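Incident review: delayed structure delivery

Summary: a single-chain prediction request sat in the queue longer than the usual turnaround. Root cause was a stuck worker, restarted by the on-call engineer. No data loss occurred. The affected request and its eventual output are reproduced below so the record is complete for anyone auditing the incident later.

Affected input:
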Amino acid sequence: MERARFDRLLETYAPVRQDETGAIIGAMEFYQDPSGLESEVASSQRTGWIIVGISTAGMYLLLVGLVKGASNTLFRQHRHLERLAQDNAHLAQRVQKAAARKTETDEQLLMRIGHSLHDGPAQDLGLALLRIKSLRQGTVRHLPRGESAADRVREDFELVETALADALRETREISSDLHLPQLERLTLPETVEMAKLDHEKKTGSTIEVDGGDVPASASLPVKIAVYRVLQEALNNSHRHAGGTEQRISVSYADGWLELRIADGGPGFDPAAGEAAKGTRPGLGLRGMRERVEMLGGTLEIESAVGEGTTVRARLLLETEVR
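Output delivered after worker restart:
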C-alpha cells in the first residue's frame, strides 16, 4: 500500500522485546521518504567541495607567495653577489697594480740607498783609508816649507777622525730611515704616538695629536702602513714646510681608519708639482700611496699655495677589531 503512494521509501525495521525477559516478541517497520536525507547529503557534499576548493586556492596562493618571495630574495642575493664580485675584481686589480708599483719603488729605493752610501759614507771612508795608508807608510813628501812631519800627522789624524765621524753620522741617518720599531705588541694609538715621538726626537719639533675614538687592535700590516705614512708625511712636512703647525688627526668610522697629517706651511699646487716631475710623484709619496692601496685604502694630498698641506690616508680595518 505504501509503495503505491510513494515511488521510493526508506524502510527501517526494529525488534520488539518483552520487558521482563527481554525476549523478542515481534518487529516494527518504519517507512521514511528519502528525499530529505538526500537533500542533506547533497548539501553536505556541496559544502565539502566548497571548503576543499577554498582551502586549495588558499594553499596555492600561499605557495605562489612563498615561491615569489624566495625568488625575489635569490634575485637580490644574486645581484648583491655580482656587485661584491665586481668590487673584489676591482680591488684585486688595484692591489695587483700597487704591488707592481711597489716592486718598482723598492728597486728605486735600493738604488737611492746605494747612491747615498756611495756618495756619503763610502767617500768619507775612502778618504780615511787613504790618510791611514799615508800614515802607515810614513809618507811625508812634498811638505810645505815650515811644516813638520808631526804637524802633517796631526792634520791627517784630524781628517781621518772627521771623515769617520761623518761616515758614522750619515750611516746612522740612512739606517734611521730604514729602521722599523717593534710594532707587534703596540696598539694602534701607541703606534701613532711612537711615530710622533720618533719624529719629535729626530727634528726637535712639536706635533699636536687628536687621537679620537679608534680601535686598540689592528693587524701588523696596518700598523706598519700607519707608521710609515706618518713617518714620511711628517718628514716631508718638516723638509718643505719647516715643521710649521704640524698636526696629526686619527679617526674611525664604519670600519675605516683615517689619518690626517697637516701643516701650516706655504703649500703648493699638486697639479703643477706633478707636471714638473713628468706626472710621476716623488718616491716618498709613491711609497705612501702604494702601501695604503695594497691594503685596499686610499691616499690623497690636499694643498694650495699659501694654505698649507694635508695628507689624508684611509685604511680599511676588520670589524672584529672593535
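Verification: Residues 275-281 have pLDDT under 50 and may be disordered.
Action items: add queue-age alerting; document worker restart procedure.
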